[in-house]
Write a structure and sequence with these properties.
Helix content: 25-40%
CATH architecture of the largest domain: 2-Layer Sandwich
Radius of gyration: 23 Å
Largest sheet: 6 strands, mixed
CATH superfamily of the largest domain: Fervidobacterium nodosum Rt17-B1 like
Shape: globular
Number of domains: 4
Structural class: alpha+beta
Number of strands: 20
Number of helices: 6
Strand content: 25-35%
CATH class of the largest domain: Alpha Beta
């Protein structure tokens, strides 16, 4: 989801408003004749090309062919395809709006240039690492890059979190040591003297290296862009392995896309579509669970669309009365499959709106499903009844906030700031809510807070990953993921 939120907000801020055109404006991807031939699966390169007066897109995507498990192959290909199509379509449609609305008579209009590079950086019989780099040239003097990484278990199609690659517990110290040594070489290039690596860190593999990736502004100025640190795989000894044991999924998550193009509302709605791999197993009717979930997702997203349409219509009618030119409202829905193993499914849906002003807003809702019965889980449902789940979670969050404060103080003091003047984030946190948002990810339970909830808008969605191993004794057995 982090990726999705960054993508939505970045595109929204560029043009001041998002506009979604009909599907014919979407990115068209055509398979090229070139491919990287190895042992199955094959990695096939696909050309991407859009040539419009307002935007020019060129580059490539990839897809896999030749896998014996077609569900897994389809899941991997759709994951990469949808990410790229969504980003390119949003950008294309945004630029079309700007071109049509503001530059109708400008024959010298300079189209935006987008270059997409998708590459497979590592592949063995167990794991595939993919890096997608999208560089957008907004003007002669300004361009920016978005970089996404994917590390996929080829046996199940699951995302591979950093911790899954290691058997021991010392790998974080090894990574942090290498990064600190690199920072110490040119400390003026960074806004920190040390880095604390989390289990959710972005990374990819090369032939001989583990590459840790930090987004612009994370540990250095935005102008420095993405920062990458290469740690030799041999540094981890026998603790490193790509041969992981990951649970298979009971269901596959696809999507249905609805485009809204009206004078009152513009939007693109991506609706999760659950497909059971088996109709029935061990007495569980997965077809019924599948249908119930699909109805839930579609009904809630359509209700969101209908409300935004009515609000946009009312705003348009009111603006006409006072002679004000009102732009159509924007409603956009994207989702991320956070966890899909065994009996658990976590779908994270972002409901984005733009109604005018400096930026849009979004509400993020995680749906955590017990696939044994189709129940949507609340946080209290996964804990044993005799445990004070709020205290357990609050204690874990407070530990992380304390570490964040200690690091902020150390860095502030190193810059010569007075302790009382150092900004300490999340000081307003007191306790989680009864309806606290959460989802499963890798081997962690992730607690998240919405915009403005415990930090400013610029902080975005604040997340606290809690390793299941830290709280496993408090959880019901069926929700102790590994």
């Amino acid at each position: 989801m982090g990726r999705i939120i960054v993508r939505i907000m970045a595109v929204a801020m560029l043009g001041g408003v998002l506009l979604f055109a009909p599907a014919c404006e979407s990115a068209k991807i055509a398979t090229s004749v070139s491919s990287v031939t190895r042992e199955k699966p094959k990695v096939i390169s696909e050309n991407i090309s859009i040539d419009k007066p307002y935007i020019k897109v060129k580059g490539n995507s990839i897809k896999l062919e030749g896998m014996s498990h077609k569900d897994v192959q389809g899941k991997i290909n759709n994951h990469i395809k949808y990410e790229l199509e969504d980003h390119i379509s949003l950008k294309t449609q945004d630029e079309k709006y700007i071109y049509d609305e503001f530059n109708k008579d400008d024959e010298e209009y300079e189209p935006k240039e987008v270059n997409v590079v998708t590459r497979s950086t590592y592949e063995d019989e167990n794991l595939l690492s993919v890096v997608i780099s999208i560089n957008t040239r907004e003007s002669e003097n300004y361009s920016y890059e978005i970089k996404n990484t994917y590390n996929i278990d080829l046996k199940t199609g699951q995302d591979v979190g950093l911790g899954k690659l290691f058997k021991g517990k010392d790998y974080l110290e090894v990574i942090e040591k290498y990064i600190k040594e690199e920072i110490d070489k040119n400390p003026e290039d960074y806004n920190t003297s040390s880095v604390k690596i989390s289990l959710n860190e972005e990374y990819y593999l090369e032939e001989d290296n583990l590459v840790i990736v930090f987004k612009p502004g994370t540990i250095g100025s935005y102008s420095k862009g993405y920062r990458e640190f290469r740690i030799p795989i041999e540094s981890f000894g026998q603790d490193f392995s790509t041969n992981m044991e990951m649970e298979s999924s009971f269901v596959v998550v696809d999507r249905k896309q609805i485009v809204v193009d009206d004078n009152n509302l513009k939007g693109i709605l991506n609706i999760p579509v659950i497909k059971a791999i088996e109709i029935e197993k061990d007495g569980i009717d997965y077809e019924e669970i599948q249908d119930n979930l699909n109805n839930l997702f579609e009904n809630e997203i359509m209700d969101f669309r209908d409300k935004m349409y009515e609000d946009g219509k009312a705003a348009m009618e009111e603006s006409e009365k006072i002679g004000y030119t009102q732009r159509p409202y924007v409603a956009n829905v994207t989702f991320d499959e956070k966890y899909n193993r065994g009996n658990l499914l976590s779908i994270y849906i972002t409901y984005y709106t733009y109604t005018g002003g400096a930026h849009g807003n979004h509400e993020d809702v995680a749906y955590n499903v017990d696939l044994n019965n189709g129940k949507i889980l609340k946080l209290k449902d996964i804990f044993k009844n005799d445990n004070d789940y709020k205290k357990i979670i609050n204690d874990e969050i407070n530990k992380q906030i304390k570490d964040i404060h200690e690091q902020a103080k150390a860095e502030g003091i190193s810059r010569g700031e007075k302790v009382e003047d150092i900004y300490l984030p999340y000081e307003g946190f007191e306790s989680i809510r009864d309806d606290q948002g959460f989802y499963f990810k890798d081997d962690s339970l992730v607690i998240y807070f919405g915009l403005y909830e415990i930090g400013p808008y610029a902080a975005g969605i604040v997340e606290f990953p809690i390793k299941i191993s830290h709280i496993g004794d408090s959880l019901k057995d069926e929700y102790v993921i590994k």
